[in-house]
Design goal:
alpha+beta, Lipocalin, 9-stranded antiparallel beta sheet, 12 helices
């Protein structure tokens, strides 16, 4: 016990702090030996009522995490970019309805209908550049260097959008990269300096900056880590940050600086009430549908919860605000393992300790015994492919009767409760699921208050012999990504080779791998989906490639090198 207290930084003593026991329970065990850890803060009515620091900022030099530690907060940074957009609107230097090409005229014409609002609310259709990096063959763990100019160039190379701007919402960091470029163009000043002058300096956030140069010496910079590979030395491995892209991410900050920002989100005393309201205004689709996202913040319909998370490399961050309760929770981690993802559970602990009701906990309706049964259950079972998400869902029988919805890995998500109109409600969750017999296959539509997706039932039986996938062999090129991959037959194996990376065995599927076949014509490689495109006479012409944020990236058959 004594060793644990030495290795895990204790909570800073504060009078009447009921949170410390909950923080001890959540984070103490995770840092009981020299390990990366956490900075944890709880704010109530504008005051930091709890702060605690656990584990090490740097394992090699045995530097503990403390109040001075600067964490990379990844996508939590988006709210600062949105705040700068809001200020420029107040200054009448731009409008939400302006096309991004007004300020970035070198973008291709496909970006003409993309507005500032579309980029901020994730409704632009602009493809997620981090997904494109993986699809073109960059290092899966982000170890290839990526500058801000590189990201803009990759976004500018795209020949199509994923959907018409304003017609749907799909989270895309590319929109915020474009916003940061717009801000630089308007101010004629580097983005990092604009943020310092307009946001960080006025708020006294002296330990906060946009990190646009990973090689820069920054005092108290926290190093991130991941679990060591099997068979390698030691428990932890450095996960170096080589990303210099800003706007969508990029902020280095401390817990005490985030307290200052949180106070501004609550009262708007320094930057103004207009900006405060701007950040908390829900976006809308072209048809007027309100979205769960504002200015870099996720928003519940009743505004009871405002939040954002972030993850890049070994850094994980959570910001969870309950504005009506006057409570905010921040958890910053420099490790990317199961222990790192505790922000929401800890926030629930905090509300319990403070004697407050959790606005996210809603009781499911009482359902009568046997009410899950449905006459046509067998007709609806099967696998459904979600084309736009490059994923799948399963409808299975439930051990207690009726149907259940399973995720892409075939793990249980929810039971399906029949409704009088023939649709179903998920329990838990109360989302609507409807089925319809449309050609060429039965479809399933999953619908919440803020988004929907449709899946088509298909034969998900994986290939059983190399002959069933032999026609996939060849070299395939993408003009817009300027990259290529090969599918290689090696005796009875099908291998996927991307640039200089080691080949990945796709068939037979290696035990314990992330490779997953979705029928004979599409396979998840562990990072993205390859879907075979054939001609009318079934000749393989190429592949559509995508993941959960990008769809329809075309690779065509091309000559071997």
């Amino acid at each position: 016990m004594c060793a644990m207290l030495v290795l895990a930084s204790a909570a800073i003593a504060q009078p009447h702090d009921p949170i410390t026991p909950a923080a001890d329970a959540r984070f103490g065990e995770a840092t009981a030996t020299p390990r990366p850890g956490f900075a944890v803060g709880v704010i109530q009515n504008g005051e930091l009522i709890h702060e605690s620091y656990w584990g090490y900022a740097n394992l090699e030099h045995q530097i503990k995490i403390d109040a001075a530690s600067k964490f990379y907060i990844a996508s939590m940074s988006k709210q600062f970019t949105a705040a700068l957009i809001g200020q420029l609107i107040e200054d009448e230097k731009l409008s939400l309805n302006d096309s991004v090409r007004t300020y970035l005229p070198d973008l291709p014409e496909i970006y003409e209908p993309v507005t500032i609002a579309h980029c901020m609310w994730h409704t632009s259709g602009v493809r997620e550049y981090t997904s494109l990096l993986l699809i073109r063959g960059d290092d899966l763990r982000g170890q290839d260097r990526m500058t801000h100019a590189d990201a803009l160039a990759l976004i500018s190379q795209q020949v199509d959008l994923d959907f018409a701007p304003g017609t749907e919402m799909r989270y895309s960091s590319s929109g915020y990269v474009l916003l940061s470029a717009v801000i630089e163009a308007i101010e004629d000043t580097p983005f990092r300096e604009v943020a310092e002058q307009r946001l960080f300096d006025p708020l006294g956030m002296d330990n906060t900056l946009f990190d646009d140069d990973h090689g820069e010496i920054v005092l108290d910079r926290v190093q991130s880590y991941r679990r060591q590979d099997a068979g390698a030395h030691g428990e932890w491995r450095s996960w170096l940050k080589h990303f210099d892209v800003v706007g969508d991410g990029g902020v280095l900050t401390t817990l005490t600086d985030l307290e200052k920002w949180d106070r501004e989100l609550s009262n708007g005393k320094v930057l103004g009430k207009t900006l405060q309201r701007f950040l908390k205004t829900q976006g809308v689709l072209n048809d007027g549908t309100e979205l769960p996202y504002g200015g870099g913040l996720w928003l519940t319909d009743d505004r009871a919860v405002e939040s954002h998370g972030g993850g890049m490399g070994g850094f994980i961050s959570d910001q969870i605000r309950f504005p009506e309760l006057g409570v905010s929770v921040y958890v910053l981690a420099n490790r990317n393992d199961d222990f790192a993802f505790q922000g929401w559970a800890f926030a629930a602990d905090v509300l319990t300790k403070l004697g407050l009701d959790n606005p996210l906990s809603s009781a499911e309706p009482s359902l009568a015994e046997g009410s899950f049964e449905t006459d046509n259950a067998d007709d609806l079972k099967g696998a459904y492919f979600l084309q736009k998400r490059n994923n799948r869902r399963f409808v299975r029988g439930h051990p207690e009767g009726g149907l259940a919805l399973h995720d892409g890995g075939d793990a249980f998500l929810a039971r399906l409760h029949p409704q009088s109109d023939g649709s179903f409600l998920t329990v838990p969750g109360l989302s609507r699921v409807a089925f319809s017999s449309e050609e060429p296959a039965l479809t399933m539509t999953f619908e919440t208050d803020t988004y929907a997706y449709t899946g088509w039932r298909y034969d998900d039986k994986p290939p059983s012999s190399i002959e069933q996938v032999r026609d996939m062999a060849g070299r395939y090129c993408s003009n817009e990504l300027k990259s290529a991959f090969e599918l290689i037959i090696d005796d009875e194996l099908l291998l996927f080779q991307q640039q200089n990376a080691p080949p990945i065995q796709l068939f037979p599927t290696p035990e314990g791998s992330n490779v997953s076949w979705n029928g004979n014509d599409r396979v998840w490689t562990g990072a993205f989906m390859l879907k075979k495109v054939t001609s009318s006479d079934t000749e393989v012409m190429g592949f559509d490639v995508g993941d959960g944020r990008v769809s329809g990236v075309s690779f065509h058959s091309c000559a071997p090198q």
